[in-house]
């Protein structure tokens, strides 16, 4: 079999094989059970809780958990603004890089605190080493935030009737210290020994073989790349992210990084199964997610490996496939797998330029972000899926004419309203943003302070593909993904501010909604299962959830996709 | 919210200490035991230092050339072209690269040119080309350097990097290593 295809199968199989035991470990961590790593982490945690004055055993309700989450996130945002707007004179700036403008700092701070990692700057020239390190800090603790609030929902699903849903601070510290930190160290080690730099020296200047002088950017790369992949962050150290040889030197590091992208998102599903002692439910969820993922990844690999028909027309050969924006050491298959992994999981790091993928691949990447629940971001991916489950339970209930119940709890009008608002928020943010930007671009509006020049100049490509660039940017912002069709001229107040506002709303509302539903359900009386109960852990219900996702996402986004990638596809083939 | 402010501030300070401080220091410490002390893989040749994984511009016809770079091989400002597959300007650029290649390599049949030689990489720093990409450049280099074609073919084969464990990924050639080896041929 083709070694490129074999490589892709290996990466995915290894991810699942590692995610199952990790899921068991995560379930133990959240359940407070004993693990063999306790001897290292118990003392660290004790220091954390003593100094911060937190009683980790003090139980909080769903509202208290949310208030704790929002408070600490606000502090992070303010601190991030302060550092990014003052980098030029703060320490650790050997290359003399400038501070950020307020609108760029706003975008970047929201982006990293919200686990999005959309980047409207280039790391080499736009950040000092201190700037890189503070962003790396957000990569740890924003991921920890998502996992902790995911765990709050796990607890709410487990309890029969309770208002005591764990302690957010405790879960946050445990997620960061016991889960993210040890795996990051392992991944960073692999990267280091395969050629990813870790140094505080500034740019190096070398003379090439044929005698030109060239500068080479470096820095504390290995530490950051590890957590950017593991925490579904994705914000690259360098401008071109993990396509840069210093971030991703060879096929082995590519495999390790790609596994890191989907490892924790998949492990969280199995963790749910172990935690609730409902392994079948976890397999149902994993099955639905994997079916969606495979439906997106296969056409992407096919079209990337087959190359660009417009280039075939010029009479040259495409033995590898579509190579624009790709690296030879990964090849189109591994690039396509990464493209779908990174967009399904809200990671957003790239090892190839999505703007130069074939139209179907670009569409599948967008679809991954539009669903945003096939694995999804660490912790929050499950929250998005939870909304789909609630809707599917409700529709199933209507179909059989019974009161909808999920895990022994009645789902009533209040929960349904929240679920619908949260679902509708995502298409609303994406489509309004795209409509506004397209209107401005189509009318070539003079933008004044918002953008230097007329609006159509922010497009790097004409026609359908130009529309896709704008659609992709807002989809990525609203999915808290962070990848982009990077040709788009987005480093200006218009894109910084609109994307910033969208990322903010799309991060915190879809956290508040599901936690509220789970909290409300947890309070309700538990109804024991009977013969008429809808069984959530069956293949039938899995298909129901899948159909709900297909119909809702399809209806919301098909018109926009038809104008962009689909139109481009039919113009090429 | 007020009850949460102080614990949140203290917790943030502790996270700064752990992740920006201790974690970074730990990885930096381990880096001292990695090849070249964690400063990227380098090759030394004739007293010059080269970064093995970073593409160099080989515009001189006596060298195997690297893939096109959208950022002109700037290793301090990585990037791709971000051109869409149907963009007419982009397709004209590719056509122009093909024409230029044919001019410099008149012995080659157009259908033998692999697309990696006429498309820009994602990073602008791709250090590799495909095997076919090396082979189509052999006639040109053989003529300029006056080296038999067979000897160059053997050189490319020696410098071919197999897929990972012979199973996973692509076959490729590191252009810098190939050109360094080329310089040592008599």
Task: Describe this entry's structure for a reader.
The complex is a heterodimer of chains A (573) and B (186). Chain A has helices spanning 3-31, 38-52, 62-84, 102-113, 123-126, 129-158, 168-193, 221-230, 251-276, 279-306, 309-312, 331-344, 359-371, 380-400, 413-442, 463-478, 493-523, 539-572, and strands at residues 204-207, 213-216, 405-406, 409-410. With 573 residues, chain A is mostly helical. In chain A, the strands form two sheets. A two-stranded antiparallel ribbon of chain A has the order 1-2. A two-stranded antiparallel ribbon of chain A has the order 3-4. In chain A, helix 14 packs across helix 18. The mean pLDDT of chain A is 91. Chain B folds into two domains: 1-39, no CATH class; 40-184, no CATH class. Chain B has 186 residues and is mostly helical. Chain B contains six helices and five strands, in the order αββαβαααββα. The chains are: A mainly alpha (573), B mainly alpha (186). At the A-B interface, helix 1, helix 2, helix 3, helix 6 and helix 7 of A face helix 1, strand 2, helix 2, strand 3 and helix 6 of B.
Provide keyphrases for this structure.
heterodimer; A: 573 residues; mainly alpha; B: 186 residues; three-stranded antiparallel sheet; two-stranded antiparallel sheet; 6 helices; 5 strands; elongated
Summarize the structure.
The complex is a heterodimer of chains A (573) and B (186). Chain A is mainly α and 573 residues long. Chain A is built from 18 helices and four strands.
Task: Please give the oligomerization state of what you see.
Answer: heterodimer
Domain count of chain A, please report it: 1
**Contiguous helical run count of chain A:** 18
Spatial extent as radius of gyration of chain A: 23 Å
Question: What is the secondary structure topology, with strand pairs?
Answer:
The complex is a heterodimer of chains A (573) and B (186).
Chain A (H helix, E strand, L loop, with lengths): L2 H29 L6 H15 L9 H23 L17 H12 L9 H4 L2 H30 L9 H26 L10 E4 L5 E4 L4 H10 L20 H26 L2 H28 L2 H4 L18 H14 L14 H13 L8 H21 L4 E2 L2 E2 L2 H30 L20 H16 L14 H31 L15 H34 L1
Antiparallel strand pairs in A: 1-2, 3-4
Helix pairs in contact in A: 1-9, 1-12, 2-7, 3-4, 3-6, 3-17, 4-17, 6-7, 6-8, 6-9, 6-17, 7-8, 8-9, 9-10, 9-12, 10-12, 10-13, 10-18, 12-13, 13-16, 13-18, 14-15, 14-17, 14-18, 15-16, 15-17, 16-17, 16-18
Chain B lengths: L1 H30 L10 E4 L2 E4 L36 H17 L23 E2 L1 H5 L2 H8 L3 H10 L1 E2 L10 E3 H10 L2
Antiparallel strand pairs in B: 1-2, 3-5, 4-5
């Amino acid at each position: 079999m083709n070694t490129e295809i074999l490589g892709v199968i290996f990466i995915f199989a290894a991810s699942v094989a590692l995610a199952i035991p990790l899921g068991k470990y995560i379930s133990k961590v959240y359940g407070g059970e004993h693990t063999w790593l306790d001897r290292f982490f118990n003392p660290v945690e004790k220091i954390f809780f003593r100094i911060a004055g937190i009683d980790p055993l003090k139980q909080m309700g769903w509202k208290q958990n949310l208030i704790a989450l929002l408070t600490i996130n606000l502090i992070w945002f303010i601190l991030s603004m302060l550092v990014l707007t003052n980098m030029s004179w703060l320490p650790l700036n050997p290359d003399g890089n400038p501070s950020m403008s307020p609108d760029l700092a706003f975008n970047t701070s929201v982006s990293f605190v919200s686990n999005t990692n959309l980047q409207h700057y280039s790391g080499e020239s736009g950040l000092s080493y201190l700037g890189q390190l503070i962003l790396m800090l957000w990569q740890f603790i924003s991921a920890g935030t998502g996992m902790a609030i995911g765990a709050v929902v796990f607890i709410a699903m487990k309890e029969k009737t309770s208002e005591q849903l764990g302690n957010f601070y405790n879960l946050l510290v445990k997620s960061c210290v016991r889960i993210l930190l040890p795996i990051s160290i392992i991944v960073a080690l692999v990267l280091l020994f395969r050629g990813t730099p870790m140094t505080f020296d500034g740019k190096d200047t070398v003379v090439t073989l044929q005698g030109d002088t060239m500068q080479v950017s470096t820095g504390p790369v290995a530490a950051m790349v590890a957590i950017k992949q593991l925490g579904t962050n994705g914000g690259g150290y360098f401008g071109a992210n993990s396509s840069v040889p210093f971030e991703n030197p060879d096929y082995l590091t590519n495999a390790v990084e790609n596994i890191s992208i989907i490892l924790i998102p998949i492990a969280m599903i199995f963790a749910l199964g172990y935690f609730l002692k409902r392994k079948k439910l976890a397999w149902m969820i994993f099955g639905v997610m994997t079916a969606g993922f495979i439906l997106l990844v296969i056409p992407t690999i096919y079209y990337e490996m087959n190359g660009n028909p417009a280039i075939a027309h010029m009479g040259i050969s495409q033995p590898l496939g579509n190579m624009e924006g790709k690296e030879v050491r990964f090849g189109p298959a591994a690039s396509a797998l990464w493209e779908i992994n990174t967009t399904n999981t809200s990671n957003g790091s790239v090892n190839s330029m999505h703007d130069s993928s074939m139209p179907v691949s670009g569409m599948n990447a967008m679809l991954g972000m539009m669903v945003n629940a096939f694995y999804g971001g660490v912790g929050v991916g499950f929250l998005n899926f939870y909304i789909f489950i609630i809707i599917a339970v409700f529709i199933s209930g209507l179909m059989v004419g019974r009161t909808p119940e999920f895990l022994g709890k009645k789902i009533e009008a209040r929960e349904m309203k929240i679920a619908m608002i949260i679902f509708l928020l995502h298409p609303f943010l994406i489509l309004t943003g795209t409509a506004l930007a397209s209107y401005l671009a189509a009318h070539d509006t003079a933008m004044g302070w918002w953008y230097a020049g007329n609006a159509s100049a922010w497009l790097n490509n004409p026609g359908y593909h130009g529309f896709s660039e704008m659609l992709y940017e807002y989809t990525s912002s609203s999915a808290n993904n962070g990848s982009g069709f990077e040709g788009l001229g987005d480093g200006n107040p218009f894109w910084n501010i609109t994307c910033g506002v969208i990322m903010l709303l799309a991060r915190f509302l879809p956290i508040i909604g599901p936690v509220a539903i789970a909290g409300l359900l947890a309070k309700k009386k538990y109804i024991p299962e009977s013969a008429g109960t809808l069984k959530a852990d069956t293949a039938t219900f899995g298909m129901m959830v899948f159909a709900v996702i297909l119909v809702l996402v399809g209806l919301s986004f098909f018109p926009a996709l038809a104008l962009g990638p689909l139109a481009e596809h039919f113009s090429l083939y | 919210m007020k009850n949460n402010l102080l614990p949140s501030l203290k917790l943030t300070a502790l996270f700064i200490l752990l992740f920006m401080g201790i974690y970074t220091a730990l990885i930096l410490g381990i880096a001292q035991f990695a090849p070249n002390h964690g400063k990227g893989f380098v090759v030394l040749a004739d007293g010059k230092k080269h970064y093995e994984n970073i593409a160099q511009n080989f515009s001189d016809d006596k060298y195997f050339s690297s893939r096109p770079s959208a950022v002109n091989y700037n290793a301090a400002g990585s990037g791709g072209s971000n051109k869409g597959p149907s963009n007419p300007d982009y397709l004209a650029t590719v056509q122009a690269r093909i024409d230029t290649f044919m001019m410099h390599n008149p012995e080659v049949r157009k259908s033998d040119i692999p697309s990696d030689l006429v498309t820009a990489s994602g990073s602008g720093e791709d250090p590799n080309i495909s095997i076919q990409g090396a082979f189509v450049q052999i006639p040109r280099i053989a003529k300029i350097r006056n080296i038999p074609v067979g000897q160059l073919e053997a050189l490319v084969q020696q410098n071919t990097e197999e897929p990972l464990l012979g199973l996973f990924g692509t076959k490729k050639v590191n252009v810098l290593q190939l050109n360094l080896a080329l310089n040592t041929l008599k």
